[in-house]
Amino acid sequence: MIETVPGAGAQDVTSAHGRRRSSLRHLLGYPTAVFGLTVVLAFVLIAAFAPLIAPFDPNQGSLLRRLRPPVPLERSLPAHLLGTDQLGRDVMSQMAFGARVSLTVGIGVVALSGLVGGLLGLVAGYFRGRTDTALSRLADWTLAFPYLILAILLMGVLGPGILNLVIVLSIAGWPHFFRLLRAEVLVEREKAYVEAAHALGAARWTVMFKHIARNVAHTFFVLATVRLGLAVLSEAGLSYLGFGVPPNVPAWGSMIAGGQNYVETAWWLSAAPGLAILLLVLSVNLLGEGLRDAFDPRMRL
Question: Which residues in the chain land under pLDDT 50?
Answer without folding.
Answer: 1-18
